[in-house]
Amino acid sequence: MEAESQTREQKYAADLTSIKEAEARIRPFINKTPILSSDALDALSGKRLFFKSELFQRGGAYKFRGACNAVFSLDDDQASKGVLTHSSGNHAAAVALAAKLRGVPSYIVMPKNAPQRKVENVKQYGGQIMFCEPNLPSRESTAAKVMQETGAVLVHPFNDGRVISGQGTITLELLEQAPNIDTIIAPISGGGLISGVTLAAKAIKPAIRILAAEPIGANDAALSKAAGKLIALQEINTVADGLRGMLGSLTWPVVRDFVDDVITVEDSEIIEAMKLCYENLKVAVEPSGAIGLAVALSNGFKNHPAWKDSTNIGIVLSGGNVDLSVYGIHPKDDE
Ligand SMILES: Cc1ncc(COP(=O)(O)O)c(C=O)c1O
């Protein structure tokens, strides 16, 4: 299906126009991230791989694109009361950073088991943290309370057209840097990243293939796609702390209608992909960020009908906020 003609009827949360507007709005603030490549990883996969390295984005993850677009879309009056979000990490830091650049306060609701590296990131950008229980009802009720008390505007991590449009700017850069890409593999959780990437990609290059990469222990998107309706999981279990969310009302329609398929991998494959990124690309990628490579190397992809038609594959390395202990490095607390 051709994305742009559909979105003109306001059927989806973003379209190529809103994504181009986002690109112009956030350009002064974001990093244009490089494409990395490795002959060794090309040989291992049997394909040409183009790694869109969003771990070099400000805040250490692509999330800054969407947060920045949302925060700078607000008029002065709205912005003056500050912005609020609930997030396990990367979006939280991104909102805090965007608010700091806009000169307004940010209130961040985080689960108390969020990785330390991500908590530090939010503090570093001046975000005011409120910890909650690690479940959705607790996150939402804490956020509602803060919103009532402060009048801050909610910037949802994925179910927000401004956020989705910001994430879509990745595609504008990627297809300019590597125009011959025929397939894009990107992580999926709440679906903000894949929705923006997909709506832009299918509008610019309708024949492009989009594969979503999901941990088997958080496979709501794979199950929903197979069933043709939104399916919620009762239990989630994955090392990829950024991929523990579930699709929302704005992202599911894009995944249902435009994402070609969702491919799942085991946590062990994600860890192996992190290691391969470190060894071959010389970059520290967090588990959620490395899953695209894990999928590219998986049997799930090699046995998929898309395999034989995929030659030049864009892989979104979505973030690099990884605790060094994963690499066996344990910095002392007082250093
Ligand atoms: C590094 C990283 N990659 C991917 C995702 C998934 O993004 P989305 O929820 O938009 O699907 C997240 C979400 O937090 C993330 O932090």
Q: How would you describe the overall organization of this protein?
A:
There is one protein chain. With 335 residues, the protein is an alpha/beta fold. The protein has two domains: 16-61 and 160-322, Rossmann fold, CATH 3.40.50; 63-154, Rossmann fold, CATH 3.40.50.1100. Helices cover 46% and strands 14% of the residues. The protein contains 16 helices and ten strands. It has helices at residues 3-7, 16-26, 39-45, 63-73, 76-80, 90-102, 116-124, 136-150, 161-177, 192-204, 220-227, 252-257, 267-281, 287-296, 299-302, 306-309; strands at 35-36, 48-53, 83-86, 106-111, 128-132, 153-154, 183-187, 209-215, 261-265, 312-317. The strands form two sheets. Strands 1-2-10-7-8-9 form a six-stranded mixed beta sheet, with helices on both faces. Helix 10 links the parallel strand 7 (183-187) and strand 8. Helix 4 (63-73) crosses helix 9 (161-177), helix 6 runs parallel beside helix 7 (116-124) and helix 9 crosses helix 10. One of its GO terms (biological process) is L-serine metabolic process. GO terms for molecular function: ATP binding; D-serine ammonia-lyase activity; L-serine ammonia-lyase activity; magnesium ion binding; pyridoxal phosphate binding; serine racemase activity; threonine racemase activity. Its cofactor is Mg(2+); Mn(2+); pyridoxal 5'-phosphate; Ca(2+). Belongs to the serine/threonine dehydratase family. This is Serine racemase.
